């Protein structure tokens, strides 16, 4: 499905809810190339402009906390549940009709934020310099000295921080700190984000990266022979196979709650979910859209191999950042 088709989406909520605002302010940890078509489609459908402040997810969560009641944001779109949990007390409860559009596992237990798309954490690796027998069986094995200098690590990326937060929940802070120190001792190639991590492998600067399932797909669409592939860790339930979500909440201080909720409903429509699946190569969260297979990895496989982690429990962003600093990675 191409971008232009999204503009035909019908928003049933608009018919039932008075819409008066002509613009919304969105803080987005999702990059402009990913979401610009959705924003354009929403504006074409409703006449409501969406003014966006882009930034790193963790950076924007901290900014919201600093701004407090002075924040101009109506909505916060984060690429992970950890950032959403960090500012959940700043969100207003969402309508039940909106919450019911996704399974309970994909939303805040108190109804303050909701997933807009899913993504699996995967291991990306070089097809030129790595053989399958070199692949680690678990994420814990990434600290093995044989991987020294070979891992591209986007240490400030929101998904990586959410992954560490989940590790803290599952294994405890001491174990998480030990693993982070092991990564630091392995002299990782520090990169700015997941895209740069995949590029580093392609350029020969690194051999491995822990990333989200959809980044490699974009490189493969541009060059079918791009020398990188990806896989899940083969150990079922391993923390390396974490299933994460991107999601959104409406700020309590917003003067445009109805419009903000309408935007969330727009993102949960079948056509928007198909956009996330087909164009962005993420996983839909409503259960109404068949997900696109991404480089041999399906949503069913990700769900089967994923560990059981309550996404509502990984919201201690500051504590996670402090642990990463203590390990010497920041």
CATH architectural arrangement of the largest domain: 3-Layer(aba) Sandwich
The tally of helices reads 14
| Averaged pLDDT | 90
- What is the C-alpha radius of gyration, as a whole number of Å? 19 Å
CATH superfamily of the largest domain: Periplasmic binding protein-like II
Structural class category: alpha/beta
Order of helix and strand elements from N to C terminus:
HHEHEHEHHEEHHEHEHEEHHHH
Distance between the termini: 41 Å
The geometry reads as: globular
Poorly predicted ranges: 1-18
- Proportion of β residues? 15-25%
What CATH first level of the largest domain would be assigned? Answer: Alpha Beta
């Amino acid at each position: 499905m191409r971008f232009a088709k999204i503009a035909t989406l019908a928003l049933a909520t608009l018919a039932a809810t008075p819409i008066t605002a002509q613009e919304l302010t969105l803080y987005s940890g999702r990059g402009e190339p990913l979401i610009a078509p959705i924003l354009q489609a929403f504006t074409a459908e409703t006449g409501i402009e969406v003014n966006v402040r882009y930034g790193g997810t963790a950076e924007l969560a901290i900014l919201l906390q600093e701004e407090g009641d002075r924040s101009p944001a109506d909505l916060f779109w984060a690429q992970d549940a950890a950032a959403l949990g960090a500012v959940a007390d700043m969100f207003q409860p969402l309508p039940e009709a909106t919450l019911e559009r996704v399974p309970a596992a994909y939303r805040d237990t108190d109804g303050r934020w909701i997933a807009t798309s899913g993504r699996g954490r995967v291991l990306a690796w070089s097809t030129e310099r790595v053989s399958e027998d070199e692949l680690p069986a678990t994420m814990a094995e990434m600290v093995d000295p044989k991987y020294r200098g070979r891992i591209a690590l986007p240490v400030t990326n929101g998904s990586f921080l959410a992954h560490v937060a989940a590790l803290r929940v599952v294994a405890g802070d001491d174990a998480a700190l030990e693993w982070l120190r092991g990564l630091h001792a392995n002299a990782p190639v520090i990169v700015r984000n997941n895209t740069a991590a995949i590029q580093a492998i392609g350029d020969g600067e690194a051999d491995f990266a822990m990333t989200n399932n959809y980044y490699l797909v974009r490189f493969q669409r541009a060059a079918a022979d791009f020398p990188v592939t990806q896989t899940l860790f083969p150990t079922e339930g391993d923390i390396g196979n974490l299933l994460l979500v991107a999601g959104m909440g409406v700020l309590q201080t917003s003067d445009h709650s109805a419009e903000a909720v309408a935007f969330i409903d727009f993102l949960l429509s079948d056509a928007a979910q198909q956009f996330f699946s087909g164009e962005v190569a993420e996983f839909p969260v409503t259960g109404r859209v068949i997900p696109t297979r991404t480089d041999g990895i399906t949503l069913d496989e990700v769900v089967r191999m994923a560990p059981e982690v309550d996404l509502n429990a990984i919201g201690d962003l500051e504590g996670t950042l402090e642990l990463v600093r203590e390990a010497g990675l920041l």
